[in-house]
Automatic annotation (TrEMBL):
Keywords of this entry: ATP-binding, Ligase, Nucleotide-binding
Name assigned to this protein: Tubulin-tyrosine ligase family protein
Gene Ontology CC, one term: ciliary basal body
A Pfam family the protein falls into: TTL
Biological processes annotated in GO: microtubule cytoskeleton organization
Amino acid sequence: MTGIYATIEGGKFRSIIEAMIEADVSIEDKESTAMLVWHDSLKECDFFGPLKPWQVVNRVPSINILCRKCPYTRVIMRMQPHFPNLYNFLPKSFILPIQLKDFLHDLQVSGKTYIYKPDGGSLGCGISIFKSGDKFEVPHIEKLAVVQQYIDSYLIDGTKFDLRLYVLIASLNPLRIYVYRNGLARFCSEKFETGTTFSQLTNVSLNSENPDCDISEISQLVSDIFPRMEAMGVDINAVWERIDNAIVSTIIAAHEFLSRSEEEYCPNVGYSRCFHLLGFDVLLDRNLNPWILEVNNRPSLDYYRGKERRMKVRAIRDAIKICCSLHHAQMAIVARKWAWNKDSWSTFVKETPSIIENMEKTRAEVEQNTLFHLAYPSNHPNSSEWEKALELTKKMPLELLPGLKLPDKILSSLKSVF
């Protein structure tokens, strides 16, 4: 039982409303005593300034360090020399226009195929694929973009696909990361051998423009596809283990940036006041190694059919229960509606241990009956290396990252890497 009030800002996916009802969350418009503030808009806004000192929000400050292609690429690249066995999921990459000279040299000598992605692109817009020897001409070359070596995909029935996986950053301090053991398998609408755009890019919006597209074929559930792969002899547990490493290592690479931003914008008051449900796009190569293509800060929570609806509603419901089971805190807020400020609320939480105890008890119960797998902390084979990586990020100087806006207090201490 969650037993809290929530407000929803922005457009409302049907799945969010349904999930809140299942989580025993009462949706109130502009409710001043609401414990949960859920943002559901594509527009950037001040997610944190208007928050009351007790409120929890479904946004992590500075999350775009992972969700824009250029800063994401940079934070992974800077960890690779130190932990090559952890950070082996990023294709060889170049940030343009900063590394244009290096890329053009690689283009001439490598004999590889490349994919070009605008820094802030979405829905497949602006993506192009070209081979070594092709003339590289991209309009607006002064704008930020990433070019990566193209990865040959594992195929099912001769068709390329990737995975949209749901990842929950439940808290930053302490760090808790969950990976949902379901998601979407997004197929191209044409066989790979045809060589068309519809055979090489898995974006659902793009493939839906193909007149021969069947939405039920290009958007399937991971829970349908992985059993098929297992029947073909694939060790699915090993695949998940490698995926968990890629996801956890990614978040660790950005943790110090995120942690500093949380401290500035949304400080912990005995419980974490921010969480984020992310969409990780993961490609499996022909050896079933995962490659992270990009991270989405607002993955589509809409659905096309009943099975997808149930999967997404359950994921949202369980995310809320894991991160915001604060019924006892909600009762205190309602009882003393206007009596709380930052200091008095922090003191109250500290002096009322039942608030955190009940939250942790509910979270433990949810963890026993959810598809959210606790990836960090865990007994993963790479857990000791993760701890070393996390410690290193605390010692590494924070950098000015291309395409990323950070809090002014943090910016003043940064140096440029390029």
